[in-house]
Specification:
The chain is 50% helix and 15% strand. The chain is an alpha/beta fold and 329 residues long. The N terminus is likely disordered. It starts with a helix and ends with a helix.
């Protein structure tokens, strides 16, 4: 009995000594997003997990929470600030924490996925990331894609700004988008993404501006009749992978490097996957009988250019606006 007691005391002493060290061997990170798990965000987040865990040799564990399991976008952004969450994908709501993000929410500014990638991987993306960190305290690890957004309605086809007059249209909780839709004559209604399907079904809103892939995966197409033709896109903005800048800076250099590399590589993977899925989604939407309408590019651009300049001046982001325009030339 005495020997057993001595062995137990020794074992507990060793455990107490090794406990903190063992705990430090694995860093567990929570990575959440607000889109359905059928959305490419989920694939991108799982790729991030795969790369980060492989690079770290098991010292990192990334737990992925998709489908708004941990809340909508605002909940996730606040969670990072509170320390209850480590990473998320920023969308329109990010502009409420880092106002410079309003720039990439400006309709018709970013032409397509090719333009978006040039922004994400070029000077505009670096300027935007810098401003997001300065204003919101978030570090950008890379930029996912959210595809190309069209305009969907139940009233009738949208070909000119006049077709949007008075339409109750769901927008992200973003000041630039709200102002832009008002300039086009619509009645913008901010709603969290997870509420969109029900709101469309119940007639709370009469239209939306989501991307073609989300239109398919969320089945919102069941509630609308018309969608704008791909080619001239409402939005094609980059969506940043966000982590607390303060938290990241507190980690060892190797951890920072693993996360940076995982962010860069998973972003390339997600963007390529999104492009493929978007093409398939558009084919499926046509097969479902949705009516596609071609927009008058010139009319919408004439209505939006003054808004671009106003928003850029409001948020002191003229340099980002200029870099985005140059990337598309």
């Amino acid at each position: 009995m005495k020997r057993r007691l001595i062995a137990l005391v020794l074992a507990l002493s060793v455990a107490a000594l090794l406990g903190p060290a063992a705990a430090q061997q694995k860093l567990v990170l929570k990575f959440a997003h607000h889109a359905p798990v059928t959305f490419p965000y989920q694939d991108g987040a799982l790729k991030f997990k795969e790369i980060a865990e492989r690079l770290s040799g098991g010292k990192l564990e990334v737990q992925v929470f998709g489908g708004a399991q941990l809340g909508g976008e605002r909940d996730l952004l606040e969670g990072i600030k509170l320390g209850t969450l480590h990473m998320c994908i920023g969308a329109g709501g990010l502009a409420n924490f880092a106002p410079a993000y309003n720039i990439v929410q400006l309709p018709f500014l970013i032409k397509n996925q090719e333009h978006m990638v040039k922004i994400a991987d070029g000077p505009a993306g670096k300027l935007l990331a810098q401003r997001i960190e300065e204003q919101g305290g978030y570090k950008v690890l890379g930029y996912f894609s959210t595809g190309d957004s069209g305009i969907q309605t139940v009233r009738g086809p949208v070909r000119t700004p006049a077709d949007l007059k008075g339409v109750k249209i769901r927008v992200m909780e973003n000041p630039a988008l709200i102002e832009s839709m008002r300039a086009l004559g619509a009645n913008p209604t901010p709603l969290p993404f997870p509420e969109l399907y029900t709101s469309m079904k119940q007639g709370v809103v009469e239209g939306a501006t989501i991307d073609y892939t989300a239109l398919w995966t969320t089945k919102v197409y069941e509630a609308v009749k018309y969608v704008t033709e791909p080619g001239f896109h409402f939005l094609s903005e980059p969506r940043p992978i966000l982590i607390s800048a303060k938290f990241l800076a507190s980690q060892p250099a190797d951890v920072q490097q693993w996360l940076a590399q995982a962010g860069a590589e998973s972003a390339v993977y997600e963007r390529s996957l999104f492009k493929d899925r978007q093409g398939k989604a558009i084919e499926d939407l046509r097969a479902k009988g949705l009516q596609f309408a071609k927009m008058d590019d010139r009319a919408f651009l004439e209505a939006m250019r003054p808004v671009w300049q106003k928003v850029a001046a409001t948020y002191k982001a003229e340099d980002i606006l200029d870099a985005i325009v140059k990337a598309g030339q």
